[in-house]
């Protein structure tokens, strides 16, 4: 069992073992958009007892042996892109329209009694469009460029520019996604079932919670693993030949 050091970033802890994400989810600790923070600082900012958190993470590790998890800190750019597209993008392709249909059904059954459903529909609809556009930009522009960074000699400039600009755009998208998820959580009391809920309402909450968890992992893998690695590799490839030997 690996030792959980307080100075390791929360994003690296999740990348090492994705099962740890559920511990952070329970505590409400942001490991995607604020994933670069060391565990001790992240706990301090969130008002969480560090030793309690370490204990919960250690317990999670004991329940989930290392062979069951992939350490994405060690994965190549191509492996990360393949994983993000085949797991997270593939999930969203099916989950988003399914959830839209369920929200419509909930609105038909409960819209008059639950006025917050109008905003739930609006926030989710905007999020749906945002994510579809975001995935298209990644799969058709950014990800192919990231792949070429690993396979080609020299720097394959993106329309004559660095990868830094599209990465910033993707990170801005991620911030908006996270804000939308937070709003959906607020509107549903943390995706908790009210006393007057129905089967279709409970189903909507279950799907919204699953969406939030998957998107948190998705964003963390891009912000904290793929993007920094691609930027670092681009920088190295852009160095003049022989620069490493000059003092």
Structural class computed from helices and strand pairing: mainly alpha
Largest sheet: none
**What is the helix/strand order?**
HHHHHHHH
Give the overall shape, derived from the CA principal axes. globular
Instruction: Note the beta-strand portion.
Output: under 5%
> How many alpha or pi helices?
8
Tell me how many strands there are: 0
- Helix fraction bin: 55-70%
- Residue stretches low in confidence (pLDDT < 50, at least 5 long) are 240-247
- How far apart the termini lie comes to 42 Å
Instruction: From the alpha carbons, calculate the radius of gyration and give it in angstroms.
Output: 20 Å
> Could you report the average pLDDT, rounded to the nearest whole number?
88
Features:
247 residues; mainly alpha; globular; disordered C terminus
Give an account of the 3D structure.
With about 250 residues, this protein is mostly helical. It is built from eight helices and no strands. It has helices at about 10-15, 20-25, 40-45, 50-65, 75-110, 115-150, 165-185, 200-240. The chain is globular.
SSE blueprint:
Blueprint: H1 10-16, H2 20-27, H3 39-46, H4 50-63, H5 77-110, H6 116-151, H7 164-187, H8 199-238
Helix pairs in contact: 1-8, 2-4, 5-6, 5-8, 6-7, 7-8
Quick rundown:
The protein is mainly alpha-helical. It is 69% helix and 0% strand. 27% of the residues are buried.
């Amino acid at each position: 069992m690996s030792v959980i050091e307080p100075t390791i970033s929360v994003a690296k802890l999740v990348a090492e073992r994705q099962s740890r994400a559920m511990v952070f989810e329970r505590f409400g600790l942001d490991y995607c958009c604020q994933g670069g923070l060391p565990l001790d600082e992240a706990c301090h900012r969130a008002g969480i007892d560090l030793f309690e958190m370490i204990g919960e993470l250690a317990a999670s590790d004991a329940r989930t042996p290392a062979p069951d998890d992939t350490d994405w800190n060690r994965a190549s750019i191509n492996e990360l892109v393949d994983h993000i597209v085949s797991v997270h993008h593939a999930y969203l392709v099916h989950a988003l329209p399914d959830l839209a249909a369920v929200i419509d059904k909930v609105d038909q059954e409960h819209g008059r009694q639950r006025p917050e459903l109008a905003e739930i529909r609006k926030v989710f609809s905007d999020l749906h469009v945002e994510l579809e556009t975001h995935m298209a930009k990644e799969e058709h522009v950014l990800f192919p460029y990231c792949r070429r960074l690993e396979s080609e000699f020299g720097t394959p400039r993106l329309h004559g520019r660095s990868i830094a600009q599209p990465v910033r755009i993707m990170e801005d998208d991620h911030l908006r996604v996270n804000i939308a998820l937070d709003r959906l959580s607020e509107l549903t009391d943390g995706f908790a079932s009210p006393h007057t809920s129905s089967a279709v309402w409970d189903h909507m909450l279950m799907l919204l919670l699953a969406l939030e968890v998957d998107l948190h992992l998705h964003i963390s893998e891009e912000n904290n693993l793929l993007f920094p690695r691609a930027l670092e590799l681009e920088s190295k490839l852009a160095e003049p030949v022989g620069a490493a030997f000059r003092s």
